[in-house]
Amino acid sequence: GEKKAGDKKAGESKPAEKKASQKKIREKTRKPKKHHASRNPVLARGIGRYSRSAMYARKAMYKRKYTAPETKIEKKKKEKPPATITKPVGGDKNGGSRVVKVRKMPRYYPTEDVPRKLLSHGKKPFSQHKRKLRASITPGTVLILLTGRHRGKRVVFLKQLATGLLLVTGPLVINRVPLRRAHQKFVIATSTKVDITGVRIPKHLTDAYFKKKRLRKPKHQEGEIFDTEKEKYEITEQRKSDQKAVDSQILARIKKVPQLRGYLRSTFSLSNGVYPHKLVF
Amino acid sequence: VFKRFVEIGRVAFVSFGPHAGKLVAIVDVIDQNRALVDGPCSGVRRQAMPFKCMQLTDFVLKFPHSARQKHVRVAWEKENINEKWAATRWAKKIEAREKKAKMTDFDRYKVMKAKKMRNRIIKHEMKKLQKQASKKGKKLQKAQK
């Protein structure tokens, strides 16, 4: 403890000069030890370069002595719950006492030692799948949408939702792309990033919020089936207010970067001589 | 017909191979296809290099054949080859090509806008001159009549 405090003081006064010894001490207390690769180079499969005794020396096993945990021997034997209990005999043969085991032997042994795994073993439902995100996509990245009605538009990435889809916004005033979900696979991540630190995205923007709503009212069996389904999508007031809340924060940051606004307004397209595999995005 | 010759001290640009893009000086000729080459100021160790991968530049250094690297370096720095090379059109073209390849999507947009603006200005001036020229022509015609 004292050593650490002393080191810290020295570190603070002279951050540039770090004595090797101080650094070593600090590093030892800080990092957990990394495991070394095999010290026995392979000559052929199954044959190492060094013998057992040589490896003993190379691995410094003479320094490493592991003892079994001695807690059971050192400490007084913990008060184990008693293995048996004596109970009074009731009923017909009243009086006297009998000895009863506290933990009884199992009354049933299954025919298989290791129970067989279900066919659905290891198959998780979609909600429990691992979501991956490409390293090139970080909050604030400008993405190029490739599919959907907004194809070719450049859009700002906000966050990844629980299902793995990307929450994305135009912003609306720039390119008419609202708060929307986009699929990671159908998107090109550019290296242009908008600084989005400190932008607060409302918590209620989840997948359920964006999911398409389908009316299911099978009351009418004939005739009016197609009329009842909502065909026209109407923009709710909540969506508008959410859009404003998020966009106002982002627009401020976009304005700081010169020409970024015009960039987001433009669309991406290929022309003669432009090959995506040769482009740096 | 030929202006650049393979000679001792000729500075060459390596066009392909592990040292692609670097400058080397020819120190000695080994045989018909190879030269002993050294680039102390460009990070190329003294080695044999085939002529095929070398492209001759306009620069020649003065040092005797098989001179030590130290002397090659001295001659190189005396002539300031690195700076002279960077000032040549050749090197500038290479740099421009590299920059173009590294352009990101945002950079391409900015270039597009800049080009557009530049062309507009040029066109504007052109149109002005054209108008002047046509006015002059009309004046002359009127005067002739």
TrEMBL record, chain A:
Is-annotated flag, keyword Ubl conjugation?
yes
* Composition bias type Basic residues, residue spans: 21-38
InterPro entries, from UniProt?
60S_ribosomal_eL6, Rib_uL2_dom2, Ribosomal_eL6_CS, Ribosomal_eL6_KOW, Ribosomal_uL6_N, Translation_prot_SH3-like_sf
Primary location group: cytoplasm
Q: Which residues form the signal peptide?
A: none
Question: GO CC: one term?
Answer: cytosolic large ribosomal subunit
Family to which the UniProt record says this protein belongs: Belongs to the eukaryotic ribosomal protein eL6 family.
Superkingdom of source: Eukaryota
What this protein is called in its record is 60S ribosomal protein L6
Q: What organism is recorded for this protein?
A: Casuarius casuarius (Southern cassowary)
Q: Where is the composition biased (Basic and acidic residues)?
A: 1-20
A GO term for molecular function: structural constituent of ribosome
Q: Where is this region: Disordered?
A: 1-46, 67-97
Keywords for the protein's UniProt record, in alphabetical order: Cytoplasm, Endoplasmic reticulum, Isopeptide bond, Phosphoprotein, Ribonucleoprotein, Ribosomal protein, Ubl conjugation
Q: What does this protein do?
A: Component of the large ribosomal subunit. The ribosome is a large ribonucleoprotein complex responsible for the synthesis of proteins in the cell.
UniProtKB/TrEMBL annotation, chain B:
Q: Which GO terms describe its cellular component?
A: cytosolic large ribosomal subunit
Q: Where is the Large ribosomal subunit protein eL14 domain?
A: 46-119
The ranges of region (Disordered) come to 126-145
Name the keywords, alphabetized: Ribonucleoprotein, Ribosomal protein
Q: Which GO terms describe its molecular function?
A: RNA binding; structural constituent of ribosome
What's one GO BP annotation on this UniProt entry?
A: ribosomal large subunit biogenesis
Spell out the Basic residues composition-biased ranges.
Answer: 129-145
* PANTHER family linked: 60S RIBOSOMAL PROTEIN L14 (PTHR11127), LARGE RIBOSOMAL SUBUNIT PROTEIN EL14 (PTHR11127:SF2)
Q: Kindly provide the name given to this protein in its UniProt entry.
A: Large ribosomal subunit protein eL14
Q: Which gene encodes it?
A: Rpl14
